[in-house]
Design goal:
single chain; Rossmann fold; Arc Repressor Mutant, subunit A; three-stranded parallel sheet; 19 helices; 12 strands; 11% strand; glutamate-tRNA ligase activity
């Protein structure tokens, strides 16, 4: 395979959500795996719904996922290209004016359905004479422009679905230019893909029908066809479709909640495939796991609770180097021994702050039996402490007091940490140190 050039094309009409991340990550990982490039394209021709704050959030959310585009473009800055393409299609007889209002089209569709006919555009505008068109325009009607489809079967070999085809005779001629001269999604998408030399278009299966239409437009413009792949879509655990408008599982919200971006990436692309969802240490590792041919044809249910668990498991696999800067940013000047001691008890990285306070103090120790704590303090070995200190100390305390099991370990944990749960004390005790441990066993805040 030659190095692919892929793209993601979010519209800045809301914050990106986990469903957007699925398509983004499939493209990014495909490019990474095959030594290709990745284009960020802002589909921002909808002036009413596109907002600057959503546009600004897109690169921030991509950076959080670890995605860095090789190039970026805005469709709002490329209107001259779309105008030129529309003019070429008009000249070739493939773009024709239509004058029906939205209400008229809706009534026509309802009549067709009532007669048992497919609700597709009947090409009535093609039958208008020049005089009839002039009369309609004299009434103040402005045309929208439809692309004249060839009524033929369009086929392609899909990276996900395999051999695919759509009968274009079952489709309405798509509107490429609105009455006000603005462009819906279809024509700008085709023009940009051709102009930028996009080699692979990987997107959701809701675009399968669009692909047949776009293939015809690309051919009419004389462009080279990309390779297409259509992955299944994510739904909520209840089967509801994800939506920017409804704010489902936005990347911004997940980031603010402290979810690990690698967990988001892994669950976004491994859910709904034949590959097991698992923690990964890097996007490079994930790129090696993802195979588009392994994606199921059925919708993939995204379980928010599974993301919580995967995020924690991802943290538990990180080495210290992967989190050192993030811990420092949280005000935790941690060391590798501290990280290795506490990581298995974290649901969020920010939870490390609790265990840093336990180590550094001061804490209020929990002393239920002062005599037992005093006896344990008297047996505490001299420093230096290491991973074996806890075992030798508790053996000595058990021999002296007769305590064993929970009666031995729980009072010591509560005295040393102020809590009844947490990381292994074999790892925490050397971090706490002898001086603070003795004070805590004596019931002093330390």
């Amino acid at each position: 395979m030659t190095a692919p050039f892929v793209r993601t094309a979010p519209s800045p009409t809301g914050y990106l959500h986990i469903g957007n991340a699925r398509s983004i990550m499939f493209n990014w990982l495909f490019a990474m795996r095959h030594g290709g490039r990745f284009l960020l394209r802002y589909d921002d021709t909808d002036k009413a719904r596109s907002k600057p704050e959503f546009a600004a959030a897109i690169p921030e959310d991509l950076a959080w996922l670890g995605v860095g585009p090789d190039a970026s473009i805005k469709q709002s800055e490329r209107l001259a290209l779309y105008d030129e393409a529309a003019a070429r299609l008009r000249a070739a007889g493939r773009l024709y004016p239509c004058y029906e209002s939205a209400d008229e089209l809706d009534r026509r569709r309802k009549r067709q359905l009532a007669r048992g006919l497919p609700p597709i555009y009947d090409r009535a505008a093609l039958k208008l004479t020049a005089a009839e068109r002039a009369a309609l325009e004299a009434e103040g009607r402005k045309p929208h422009w439809r692309f004249l489809l060839d009524w033929e079967e369009i086929g392609w070999n899909d990276l996900v679905r395999g051999p695919s085809h759509v009968d274009c005779a079952s489709l309405s001629d798509p509107v490429l230019v609105r009455e006000d001269g603005t462009y819906p999604y279809t024509l700008p998408s085709v023009v940009d893909d051709v102009d930028m030399g996009i080699t692979h278009v990987i997107r959701g299966e809701d675009h399968v029908t669009n692909t047949a239409v776009q293939i015809q437009i690309i051919q009419a413009l004389g462009g080279a066809l990309p390779t297409f792949g259509h992955h299944n879509l994510l739904t909520t655990a209840s089967g509801e479709g994800l939506s920017k408008r409804l704010g489902h599982l936005s990347l911004r919200g997940l980031r603010e909640a402290g979810v690990e971006p690698l967990a988001v990436a892994a669950l976004a692309v491994l859910t709904g495939t034949s590959d097991a969802v698992r923690p990964v240490a890097s996007l490079e590792e994930l790129a090696g796991l993802v195979e588009l041919a392994h994606v199921s044809r059925a919708p993939a249910k995204f379980d928010e609770h599974e993301l919580e668990a995967l995020s924690a498991r991802t943290l538990h696999h990180f080495g210290f180097a992967a989190v050192a800067d993030r811990l420092a940013a949280l005000g935790i000047p941690a060391t590798e021994p501290f990280w290795l001691a506490v990581r298995g008890n974290l649901a969020r990285l920010s939870d490390a702050a609790q265990w840093w306070r336990v180590v550094e103090g001061p804490i209020t120790p929990g002393i239920a039996d002062p005599a037992f704590a005093a006896a344990a303090g008297a047996l505490l070995p001299e420093e230096p402490f290491d991973q074996t200190t806890w075992k030798s100390w508790t053996q000595a305390v058990a021999a002296a007091t007769g305590a064993k099991g929970k009666a031995l370990f729980m009072p010591l944990r509560q005295a040393l940490t102020g809590l009844d749960h947490g990381p292994e004390l074999a790892a925490l005790l050397p971090l706490i140190g002898r001086e603070k441990a003795l004070k805590r066993l004596a019931g002093e805040a330390a």
